[in-house]
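Supplementary Methods S3. Input chains for the assembly prediction are listed below.
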Amino acid sequence: MDQKEISLRGAGAILTIDLAAIVANWQTLQAVSGTECGAVVKADAYGLGLHPVVKALYEAGCRTFFVAHAFEGAEVRALAPEAIIYVLNGVRPAQEYTFAAHNLRPVLNSVPEVEDWGQYCATSHKRAPDGSLLKAGLRIDTGVNQLGLKLYDLERVDHLSPLFDVTLLLSQLVTADDSIADRQIEAFDKIRARYPGVPASLANSAAIFLDNNPPLYDLVRPGYALYGGNPVPGRPNPMRPVVRLDAHIIQVRVLEPGHSVGVERLWKARGPRRVIMVAAGLADGIPSGLTDNEKHVGGKALIQGTLCPYVSDIAMDYSVIDVSDATYLERGEMVELLGKTVTIDDFAAMANVSGYEILSNLGRRCHRRYQPL
Amino acid sequence: MDQKEISLRGAGAILTIDLAAIVANWQTLQAVSGTECGAVVKADAYGLGLHPVVKALYEAGCRTFFVAHAFEGAEVRALAPEAIIYVLNGVRPAQEYTFAAHNLRPVLNSVPEVEDWGQYCATSHKRAPDGSLLKAGLRIDTGVNQLGLKLYDLERVDHLSPLFDVTLLLSQLVTADDSIADRQIEAFDKIRARYPGVPASLANSAAIFLDNNPPLYDLVRPGYALYGGNPVPGRPNPMRPVVRLDAHIIQVRVLEPGHSVGVERLWKARGPRRVIMVAAGLADGIPSGLTDNEKHVGGKALIQGTLCPYVSDIAMDYSVIDVSDATYLERGEMVELLGKTVTIDDFAAMANVSGYEILSNLGRRCHRRYQPL
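Predicted structure tokens for the full assembly:
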């Protein structure tokens, strides 16, 4: 038993991350979209580990990365020297230097932001490593939400155009409603006409799989789908599963009718039951919504081929699962809480939260194990 | 502006942790209980940082720490060489060596666990650093939940008593119902009689503040209350607030009636509104339940003295707050999302989750800033 094995035995829960599946998903998204495929790796690559994920994708050929913050961009830069890196939350006052130092491109979201960036580019005389102007993307408001630049905003900042290169026009297509999407595409095309030759990106993962083939332009930027999330809810998931969560069994208990477990005592056994206490709780990213309560049906884990319900409240360090219908289990064994059958999307639906929230919170205390490429 | 200041400017959200308040809370709990006060520091000290928290408490005189996992215990051991460290999730097969190596005491929860620990102590000939027997706590089932040892369980493992020292009897008092508490105390005392001279711990933080003064025995073991959580829900919080969460404003937007923000577009402005987009979202531990929806009123942030509602969905990297009733705000400024007015407990109630869940998920991406002692 090597050090790594000992450390995994010490872990309460183990999050296994299939790097080959992330790469395969990226390749699928690129093939299906028929255009350049970037990768959204913000928030520590959705909680799965920025370093291994960026390394794997960069080696596979990914050359455009999206993060939320400049400090995340600086980490990507260290791993992907030749990549283009966009910072989706944009640039705040006094942050500009970080962008120049690490060759990051802010996604500019508002008129004051464009003005500040233009001012910085004009006064600092900073240049990209190849001597060209500093670069930025523009988030376009295509009429759906109000968090980007409109046509008249762009007209107001036109005089700043010579100060930096606009290298990407971004917006996000609403995939749930065709009539909205058509208006968005029309608005986007109107603005694209003002920036001839500038690459454009409108599609998230869902748009790539739409039957009506909306224009994907020059770049798609999947996030959740890369990590195995279903980009087309309600239809079979075209992505390969990426994560599996296993937890150690701390105890096996036989309960008599009326017995409760946990401090809150909201759940009581209706008949003789066998439950296990597994070493993964709120602090490991298991959401409180996973348990049965008066408003909500609760979640299930796949234990030896049988779906078994979570009972009692999710505690900070453990969860309790009713395994009466499963085969015999012993303390010290591991059980799968999340994987190919109970997927991230299932887990999120059972807990009544989004899959983004599930991924973001998993793996803070869970040990992460990477399946190599 | 030093490196640290630059790094904080780079952060989207900053979690400020008042170490002096944690120490003051520990001292209050010790004074009010009139007995030894330990500290629960599992899950990276409830997400606030194991290293600084344990260092501060150890320097203040805390000598008994509780964690959930052996690997957390090993980290505490490195910081607190003379401390007693209990591992609440107990010991699993093949984990025993870690306990002996770092002088950790498992809290034994079941008969098989007691048997395995006894067997290990008998066959390994491992000893505590002072040459005495290895040690363990016993979790007692006092009739409330079924996750500890009952009297007849203890009788079954009596022959193992010479193999290790039992140094703590633990259970948890139900504070919401006096009749249950009385039965628990009776059951606990019956078991204590079997272990003369062995310290006992029955009280969580709430019990310390109960008017009917339940017996606190030899050790109290607060967790959430140390970190500023209210141990007596519905009554004024006797603890000092510990955490504050501030986030940078990414954008300020004026919306016309009918405008929406965010991708989901579930929220629409009913009149002319001014909103801010702040750089803290799901991936920073802002729970999705904080926003208004059909089932739930949603949360508010204290912006310049005015409580302002979260609107639209919480996105992965940002939240949107309606600041129409606040004074003028600018992009780049910081706003307080959590602190003395909107406390952890308020935040949890607004999001319909527990305070434990809030603390556990904050600070994964937020930068942590410590107010020194």
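The first strand of chain B starts at residue 13 and ends at 18. The mean pLDDT of chain B is 91.
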